[in-house]
Amino acid sequence: MTTMIHNSDERARTKPNRAAQALKAAAIFWFSTAVVGQALFVVYIVGFYGAAAVARQPERWNDVLVGGYVAGGLIGNLILAAHLLMAAIITVGGPLQLIPQLRSRTLPLHRWMGRAYIVTAILISLAGLYMVWTRGTAGGDAMRVGISINGVLILIAAVMAWRHAAARRIDRHRRWAMATFLLVSGVWFFRVGLLAWIMINQGPVGVGDDFDGPFVRFWAYGCYLVPLAVLMLYLRAQDRRSRLGKALTAALLTVVTLVMAVGVVGAAMGMWLPHLVG
Ligand code: HEM
């Protein structure tokens, strides 16, 4: 009898928790989709901005940029060029830091890449803040204030991730590092979310003639606050034992990923690839 009870207890303990598995699968689905989408963004940054720089035609950057290259504006142009170079580097480096297999097998590499990632996150944000407030950007005040808050949050999250890693508080480091990655991806989420919205609505509803419509004003902040909110739900579902919580969060992540996939296709076809051909 005791053996039977013991065996059934054992089975309950070792029985695969389907909800936990679903949550893990949804997270992998989200991450893989983000990696593909960010790789396409890097191809665009290198293929458009990099190619124009190599051809010594930085004025071509202004085919896209609003407050971009200014003839004779040396300091601002160098900061813009550094921002674009760091954009490519950080977008490649971020996902590499989050792959568990790479992290556990090559911890010294993770540490060095982590330091480089955090320094790059700080520098790209400082460069971005300078650019917003000296040369401007598309849209109105919401865009300027929204991305500036994004930049300040990157600075805070990057420093917190570093401090917790240095003090070997690994659980807290992990949370802040994930938040840093999402905040750094804010500009990518902005483009992907905008294109998902336009594709789902089959037109630029709420975008506005001056790129200052209600959707743009909402998404200028939402592009990083919504991902952060989803991250908090995900971490909470991971920590708690509730199977329902895990299952609901897995469902939410799956829906978010499908919308993100629509946005990646839209951004690649509508914003990025056209600048690589022709
Ligand atoms: C941290 C990750 C970031 C990445 C990967 C990134 C990437 C980029 C890219 C690729 C562009 C060219 C625009 C395009 O072709 O779509 C750009 C432009 C720009 N970025 Fe960033 N950026 C980041 C953060 C920031 C932050 C935090 C700010 C502001 C605080 C900022 C401000 C700007 C500005 C002002 C422009 C020029 C926009 C224009 O002239 O139209 N960026 N960035």
Which features characterize this protein?
278 residues; binds protoporphyrin IX containing FE; 10 helices; mainly alpha
Question: What is the fold's blueprint, element by element?
Answer:
Elements: H1 2-14, H2 18-54, H3 74-98, H4 100-105, H5 107-134, H6 141-166, H7 170-184, H8 186-200, H9 214-239, H10 243-272
The chain binds protoporphyrin IX containing FE (HEM).
Residues 45, 64-68, 83-84, 87, 90-91, 124-125, 128-129, 131-132, 137-138, 147-148, 150-151, 154, 184, 187 line the site of protoporphyrin IX containing FE (HEM).
Short description:
With 278 residues, this protein is mainly α. 79% of the residues lie in helices and 0% in strands. The structure holds protoporphyrin IX containing FE.
In words, what does this structure look like?
- The chain is mainly alpha-helical and 278 residues long.
- The protein has one domain (21-275).
- The protein has 10 helices and no strands.
- Helix 8 packs across helix 10 (243-272) and helix 9 packs antiparallel against helix 10.
- The longest helix is centred in the first third of the chain and has 37 residues, at 18-54.
- The chain is globular.
- Residues 1-12 have low confidence and may be disordered.
Helix content: over 70%
- Helix tally? 10
According to DSSP, the number of beta strands is 0
Q: Could you say which small molecules are bound to this protein? A: protoporphyrin IX containing FE
H/E series: HHHHHHHHHH
Inertia-based shape: globular
| Tally of domains | 1
The main β sheet shows up as: none
What's the N-to-C terminus distance? 77 Å
Structural class: mainly alpha
- Overall mean pLDDT score? 94
Low-confidence stretches: 1-12
> Beta fraction of the residues?
under 5%
Rg (CA only): 21 Å
